[in-house]
Amino acid sequence: MSEATRKASGRRVTVRCPFCSRLNRVDLARTTDRPRCGNCARPLLLDRPVDVTDQDFERYVRDAEVPVLVDFHADWCGPCKMMAPVLDSLAHDRQGDLLVARLDSDRNPATSARFSVRGIPTFILFRGGREVGRETGAVPRSQLDALLGKETA
Question: 86 pairs with which residues across the strands?
Fold first, then answer.
């Protein structure tokens, strides 16, 4: 792919390989080509939420050329568990236009505190590294779609 084509796509993200933990730069315009990790060659699964941590949160949000919806959750949270299939569906349906990420607020308190997350689940939409929208609580898919609105159009 030429540099001009790469710049024209404008849908690149950085994601961590779930198998070897290596960061990879992926062009979401080519997700149908089934991207693989540059280190271990295993598939990078972008049709589901990706896990982020305090250490790599900034990189995911800052480097993404598409909107990033971050789910601040905890393993023990009932409403968070209820939202998991909704987020899976959203990640699958919007693959290539949106990156859906999950941040465990118990294991990553710095990022949760930085964005004043007071209740979980909290969904924060980022565009160009900046927060552009937020929803708190278990909400219907239609409400998340409304939050995304024109950001992913």
Answer: none
Q: Are 99 and 69 in contact (CB under 8 A)?
A: yes
Q: Encode pLDDT of 79-115 as tens digits.
A: 999 999 999 999 999 988 999 999 999 999 999 999 9
Q: How far is CA 143 from the centre of its chain?
A: 17
**Three state DSSP letters for 74-126:** CCCCHHHHHHHHHHHHHHHHCECCEEEEEEECCCCHHHHHHCCCCCCCEEEEE
Query: Do residues 47 and 91 touch, judged by C-beta distance below 8 A?
Result: yes
Instruction: With H, G, I as helix, E, B as strand and everything else as coil, classify residue 132.
Output: strand
Q: pLDDT digits over 47-61, tens only?
A: 899 999 999 999 999
Set 17, 37, 40, 80: catalytic member: 80
Given the residues 17, 20, 37, 77, the one annotated as active site:
77
Alpha-carbon span 142 to 55, nearest angstrom: 31
> Does residue 40 carry a catalytic annotation?
no
Structure tokens of 39? 């280190």
Model-wide pTM > 0.85: yes
37 is catalytic: no
